[in-house]
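Checklist before submission:
- one chain only
- standard amino acids only
- sequence pasted in full

Submission:
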Amino acid sequence: MDVNVGYKKILVPVDFSDASRKAFYVALKFARLFDAETRVIHVFEPMDTFDGANRVEAEANEMARLEDGVKRRVNELFAKGGLGEVDRRKVFVDIRGGKPWKEILTAVVDENIDLVVMGNTGTSGFKELLLGSTTERVVRRAPCHVLCVKTDDYEYDPIPVPQKFKDV
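Returned file contents:
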């Protein structure tokens, strides 16, 4: 069994939450370590409207505004993170509309991604139970490695280990 780990293309989804900001920095550290290309992806869910002509114009305007905002915020992440040593020529920003988990998985296949680094908020609730989180869906379906980065204040509920397994 050959276990040669080397990443050439890393994808990091960002929604600018604390978890995705931390994942962004971790992804860039991996990119520097492996001299890998980094793809930063931001996915927005298009608005629902019944007026076709206005919808196309509104989404075009929203896309342009969103693209400027995402690029500005990614640049802010670089500035705040002290990432001057990262080769910015190997960092690309991709903005897509759709369901985040579907667009992330599409990007993984389209771009031949080796590693996805994404934030995990650790939130739970009825919606997460019913639908599943974006991170969980990507982990289950991605054809590559997925690294889940937790925030510093991540709270977990440890699963109790039955006594019969503690003695093993």
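Reviewer check: The mean pLDDT is 79.
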